[in-house]
Amino acid sequence: MNPPQSYSNRIVFSLGGSIFYSKERGINHEFLTKFFDFIKNLKGYRGAIVVGGGPLAREFIEEGRKLGLTEYENDMLAIWETRKNATLVLHALKELLIYPKLLYNAEEASIAINQYEWLCSGGFFPGITTDAVAALVAESIGAAKIINISNVKYVYDRDPRKYSDAKIITTSTISEFLKIASRDDNRGAGENFVFDIFALKIANRSKIPIYFTDPDIPNIERIVKNLPHQGTVLTP
Tens digits of per-residue pLDDT, 79-91? Predict the structure, then answer.
């Protein structure tokens, strides 16, 4: 079977909601301004930026559970928070050749990428995370890589906040990492995943490597340009 078609200059950035906003500092203006400048100066590339919901989305979910909302309804609360965050990104990059509305499905992405350099998205529908949205969009546009940006540079074999013996993973195959990710994936609204197993399976079937890094813009640039960098890499 021939490998799926991909374009070396197409990239999907997945911005974790924890990078976008924290209870302590509010919106992370310092990172966002640096990231927007980076995208504006990233000549010769195109792709998508997918934005998570973060702590605000989880606050709404917690309140929703107290009020007796269903998991579907709580997921919808989180999706609207991701879309609010993504709308800020969309308008901040309006001077670029960017698709002028948020994506609502992957088919829309596959069409829009042929006319626009950049696309922007929050969540799609209940039951999947924005990790999965990033993977679906990457697959639909033929992206060469997914770059997941969160508040940690590496992923671990277990939650380092709970387990002092958690080990850093620098490289792994997606298939092997699936075993780790599957342990904690219960599909609850607002749940913190190591990485969404649905996203991993989508990336694996379309041979899309996934890179994990923190908000270090020079390091992100090195990942984009296939230069030596720090962080975790999962390969198909």
Answer: 999 999 999 999 9
Rg of the Cα atoms in the chain:
17
| Cα 122 from Cα 47, distance rounded (Å) | 14
Q: Which of 22, 7, 33 lies closest to 59 in space, CA to CA?
A: 22
β-strand pairing of 26-27 with 21-22 = antiparallel
Which residue, among 212, 207, 215, 216, has the nearest Cα to 232 in the 3D structure?
212
Q: What is the CATH number of domain 7-235?
A: 3.40.1160.10
- Give the tens place of pLDDT for each residue, 90-105: 999 999 999 999 999 9
C-alpha distances (whole Å) from 96 to each of 120, 153, 201 are 12, 28, 32
Confidence of residue 4 (pLDDT cuts 50, 70, 90): low
